[in-house]
Amino acid sequence: MSRQEETYRERHLAVVILDLIGSTKFVERFGAYDAARLFQYHDRRARTLMYRFGGREIDRSDGFLLSFERVIDAVNFGLYYQMTIPPLIKINARIGIHWGTVVEVRQRELDVLVGAKPVELEGLTKNIAARTMSICQAGQVILTRDAFALVRSRSSKQTPRDTRFACVGIYKMKGVRELQVIYAVGSDIKHLQPPQGNDKVTRVGGPKKIKSRARHRKLLEWAEWAIYRGALISLGYILAHMYPYLKHQLAPLIGRLMELYDQYR
Fold first, then answer.
1. Which of 27, 88, 94, 187 is deepest in the core (most CB within 10 A)?
2. Are 95 and 16 in contact (CB under 8 A)?
3. Tens of pLDDT along 9-22?
4. What's the rounded Cα separation, in Å, for the pair 255 and 257?
5. What's the pTM value of the predicted model, to 2 decimals?
């Protein structure tokens, strides 16, 4: 006999919202058939990562609504997703993560038979995850302070090497009473930069730019650092050697300017 009533269970989960950027434009440009094939390929690759990190698909549209038992698994999923899937499909994505209490609703079997999702999540945690994702830049994985608190100074064997976290700012989210401190996670400094707000999320404060620390710099970043400082040293060296010549050549002009200044002051 089929279960007649849905069930409700309050749980703590990491809620992840993944959004494909520009998916509608892609459908318009390439047509429904080609878009459907690409999105199915994307979904298979994403679900492989979900299985690897213990994620659970709750819903799907232009991306996924997912849940994880542990925040570190959600972070690892986000990092590996951004490293592997967007380069294959040539569509960028953004990922927001929040940890909190949700109500897990298991639907009646009859409702599932007519199209309802077997499990749905309700609660403010889902809304905060959605707001967090909405300010995310292309290629970023960002998370709230509640989520960050459970992974700070922690990792797993599957966490990508050189992963680092950065506090990117304080944000006021529409419909959420408390201010949210947001962190970015990644191995590339460009993915750790503070995102701007939008019509539903206002940036209140925080760093204007995240700088790369010496111990975190990659080879290319060290090369840029060396070239920039080398150029400054070279410019100073050249000016020092040219000073006597410049002084001799510019002396008449400087004298004339001083005369004009004395004349009209």
1. 94
2. yes
3. 999 999 999 999 99
4. 5
5. 0.79
